[in-house]
Amino acid sequence: MSTDVTAKTPAPAPPGKSGTAAGGGLLQLVLDGLRRNMRQYGMLIALGLIVALFAVWTDGDLLLPRNVSNLVLQNSYILILAIGMMLIIIAGHIDLSVGSLTAFIGSMAAVFMVDNDIAWPLAVLLCLSVGAAAGAAQGFFISYLGIPSFIVTLAGMLVFRGLTEIFLKGQTLGPFPEGLQKVANGFLPEVGPDTNYHNLTLLLGFAVLAFVVFQEVRDRGRQQEFALDVPPMNLFVLKLVAISAAVLTVTMLLASYKGAPIVLLVLGALVVGFGYVMRNAIIGRHVYAIGGNLPAAKLSGVKDKKVVFLLFVNMGMLAALAGLVFAARFNAASPKAGLNFELEAIAAAYIGGASMSGGVGTVLGAIIGGVVLGVLNNGMNLVGIGTDWQQVIKGLVLLAAVGFDVWNKRKVGS
Amino acid sequence: MAGPVLEMRSIVKTFPGVKALSDVTLTVRQGEVHAICGENGAGKSTLMKVLSGVHPHGTYEGDILFEGEVVSFKDIRASEHHGIVIIHQELALVPYMSIAENIFLGNEHATRGFISWNDTLKHAAELLRRVGLDENPQTRVADIGVGKQQLVEIAKALSKKVKLLILDEPTAALNDEDSGKLLDLILGLKDQGITSIIISHKLNEIETVADSVTILRDGQTIETLDVKAAETTEDRIISGMVGRDLEHRFPERTPHQPEAGVAPALEIRGWTVHHPIDQQRKVVDDVSINVRRGEIVGIAGLMGAGRTELAMSVFGRTYGRYTDGVVLKDGTEIRTKTVSDAVKHGIAYVTEDRKHYGLNLIDTINRNISLSALNKVTKRGVVDEHEERKVSEGFRKSMNIKAPTVFEPVGKLSGGNQQKVVLSKWIFTGPDVLILDEPTRGIDVGAKFEIYTVIDKLAADGKAVVFISSELPELLGMCDRIYTMAAGRLTGEFSRAEATQESLMRQMTKDKEVNR
């Protein structure tokens, strides 16, 4: 299940060690496990370190319930884009147009809802369709005409940015209907008795926790059933405890403010859905095969053109979703919206473990990469680092993350 | 005649797990054209790579004497410095640079880092005259034909003051006219005192151009013959190339008895395919073959014979530009325009190049095995990893794939085990016809036997097997019937009883005339 960090392959323990190690060697086991799964865990640990660093630096402000809530809202659109971008990069392509497309959809939304008073649910559907159509147009050029995705989406980047300015006539357009704002900026409703916490969020958190633990246990059971090596029991328990602690912490933080943002639920659904598709659906496998070895995939009967086309349609829809969330959050469509979003999404994918040559990466990785960037942004804002230095630091983090990955792979590979 | 310009003494070169050269000795006299021939994998290219410094000094054993001195090249530059230049089969030209720029690439006429174009063009024009190429030196290499590109390579070699020119199958990609011109040029260079080594499969070519010929087999020098001597005939060379003892072990096979009245599982009629870029060239020319259920049919041919091209163009048109021909499955015509079509009709193609066309090396064994038939482990659009694991574990055991689990990345496996994964993948699609392209290339003897056993079992289970190979002993050991191909044409068909290494090799080296 995609809730597992090691989603792509359940990492088996080294033969002969399974379940037999004494409790005293636990630290050793943890270190061994980390070393073998650097790729999966490396970034998660880095994220932990970054969070800890800024938590201390900001005297705990980073982890204030209000700030955590903010963090989610601020980064939701980048994370949505990062999911789609990860799939595209796994297939060995790139999409530079998503930032402009985000702005373009924002302007369409304003034209539909502000200028023409179309009911917002209908307008949302229209916007998603426009996004899909934009993605389809680019995907057609890329997969069926064979124009490199870099070129097609670079053109798209200019075209959609230009169209945005044309539609908005250079002006900022707003406000959006209240219903849409509630979805983009709102929280789960209050229900039940007054407990000082947000009840629905608590329930949801516990449900997620139960689900994750259930999945982990079931996976382990299945692996044992197939006589595969599984991590020793104490390491497994440690992993469960770590996951539980993380889920509970986030739940409590959100529940002690206004509750879980609705956007977070949307995002969660996307992560679970896309994670599942990428791992368990035929099309997901085909995406990995195309990126891993295109000629071999073709000779295996993979319909590579159709898959790449659909990936870009999907990216267009996700960009539309991001555009709607962004526009609704700021309650206006602006010609300067979504600037550099494509770069943030690409950076998130690479920080999260994607490979330049394709074939590698997970949806959860993209989220981790996106959250690393988000925490960096937020933390640096809190401690008052200027945007000039913020860019320098983010650039170095990207370089370090990918550099570490390359170094690590070379060490293991040769 | 003059003394030796080059002596290679007791050269031994090992790659991990394979001994490519074991004790090769080669003596080339000053001013001669020396041919080297041998089957694919005999060690010809490896020997030339040792000589030219691609495999640097220290990675092989033995001595190289050039012009009487022991030399040790650490790279290509070092050998070129001594006047030894190799022209590889795949030309090493930059297509979008001009002829002149290509000739002097890495060796530019320049002062203080800036190219002096007048010198470059003048000198290039002189060189082009020497090789008899009537082209403007400013023409882009991409705009001239392969034959002319070959001449540009030779001009480039001449610019490096070449003393010993090595040509690796120079005419493999050329038509008759260009081949003739090239051979004339080699003789012309000989008159100018340049010694040449030419690797070739075409025996008529060797007879025309070479003074002596060294035959390699299984990484060893078999003999060196004087081509002009009366006793050196094509048959003599062929027996030298193939005359290995048939000590290979193959599984016991009961030869297939064709059933009367049953249509062949796969029949190809009048198949013709043109080269994807050089559209004038027919890569497969009017080929018709058939294979029945339970039968193993071999296709023998040397490099460039068009065997892989035939197989790939039939399998979903994945090679070249199709022009003519039909495919019949069990007597009815089928469409195989895409790979999915071919797979749907129960055809499987196991590629000769498993790393590039067969496997996703960064992915695991189980995902590679299931890729072509994911629908078989899918329920309601969802891949059942349970089932997938079970299937691939089954293959791991039955095919004896040596890996701790099926979650091992395929890239970490040895060649033989990778080949077993590719075979498993295609067997899992449940094919009726399997086209196996060099299924034992680059794998060790033990794994070969395992693969032979699998192939035998497939035939026994009623599958039709097309077995493409350059290794004659394995074709003779495994096949019920063998076709031979040369230069894109079918040149012969032999029953198991008729076929011998000599008879096959004669048809495989038949260059032009068609003989059915």
UniProtKB/TrEMBL annotation, chain A:
GO terms for cellular component: plasma membrane. It is a multi-pass membrane protein. It is found in: Cell membrane. The chain crosses the membrane at residues 41-58, 70-89, 96-112, 118-137, 144-163, 197-214, 235-254, 260-278, 307-328, 348-376. GO terms for molecular function: transmembrane transporter activity. It comes from the Bacteria. Keywords: Cell inner membrane, Cell membrane, Membrane, Sugar transport, Transmembrane, Transmembrane helix, Transport. InterPro entries: ABC_transp_permease. The keyword tRNA processing does not apply. NCBIfam families: GguB (NF040906). Part of the binding-protein-dependent transport system for D-xylose. Probably responsible for the translocation of the substrate across the membrane. This is Xylose transport system permease protein XylH.
From TrEMBL, chain B:
It is a peripheral membrane protein. Residues 6-243, 268-512 form the ABC transporter domain. Keywords: ATP-binding, Cell membrane, Membrane, Nucleotide-binding, Repeat, Sugar transport, Translocase, Transport. PROSITE patterns: ABC_TRANSPORTER_1, ABC_TRANSPORTER_2. It is found in: Cell membrane. Gene3D superfamilies: P-loop containing nucleotide triphosphate hydrolases (3.40.50.300). Pfam families: ABC_tran. CDD domains: ABC_Carb_Monos_I, ABC_Carb_Monos_II. Coiled coil: none annotated. The keyword Membrane applies. Its main location: membrane. InterPro entries: AAA+_ATPase, ABC_carbohydrate_import_ATPase, ABC_transporter-like_ATP-bd, ABC_transporter-like_CS, L-arabinose_ABC_transporter, P-loop_NTPase. One of its GO terms (cellular component) is plasma membrane. One of its GO terms (molecular function) is ATP binding. This is Xylose ABC transporter ATP-binding protein.
